[in-house]
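Why does residue order matter? Because the sequence determines the fold. Keep that principle in mind as you read this record.
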Amino acid sequence: MAIAEALTNIVGTPLKDGLKAVSLSANWMWPCRNEGEDAALYRAVEACSDFACALGINIPTGKDSLSMTQKYGDKKVLAPGTVIISAAGEVTDVKKTVSPVISPVKSTLFYVDFSGDTLKLGGSALSQTMGRLGADAPTVTDAEYFKTAFNAIQLLVSTGKITAAHDVSAGGLVTTLLEMTFANTRGGLDISVDGFNENDLVKILFAENPALVIQVANENVEDATAVLNTTGVKYHAIGSPAANHTLAVTHKGKTINLDIDALRDVWMRPSYLLDCKQSGDKCARARFENYSKQPLQLAIPSTFDGSLASRGLDLNRVKPTGIRAAIIREKGVNGDREM
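Structure:
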């Protein structure tokens, strides 16, 4: 699942030779030297290695933190065994990278399955919010199929057939669709999930099976679906952009309307609460109340050619100053002894 999410995150940019261009980095964090944990780590590394080998990609680098145990008097707390996967690869044309934000064009949204598994909620963000873990988590059932799906999307990206794309990961499909609309101040989505082979709406909206939601302009739908059909990739249409600034989800004849702006505030609230600790309540509150009113705008001067001079910088100010600097690390932060 960690490898699959790293790959569905990177699939929206054109890579030289597709999946073969990717290398992974694995950061293992585990409470070793506790009963059963060394064996669990071995099984996890073996599963990670087997899946990477089956995909034909390497893991040439990474790191480990294997003392993820903290003692408080007589009490001992073990961090959950975790691996963080980062994916990197050579990009052929960065300008062809597909945005994760819905574009206001006449188009169709498709759910592209990378998993091949039934929808499952074990280990999901939804389960965690309910204080549960679950015993049945989703997986990738066929590495060869995953490779095929990845490279099919790569072909569509490199030929400009996809307008927007966002992986289905933490939070499931409903979070994916909301995140694709949060950056827009207008418009929403009309979604129907009747195409899923599942009656449980909660599973449809919150299962984190590896998948991709792509937006395809109507004039490119025939070409895009032809590629998916030819390669045998499983997909189905789930909706299209709408004029109303809501996410409307229809299932079995019933429609749920979700307020995008209200849910964006919910989505931003954890960042606001953390900002209160760092910047103080007053500044954090001002930022939180203003973020939705101030659009992100980037204006690049026509005179800019990449040089410092074209940015209006005083070249005398960017010369080395000779000032010495120090790096201060807090005790307990990984690397303090080495430093």
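The chain has a mean pLDDT of 92.
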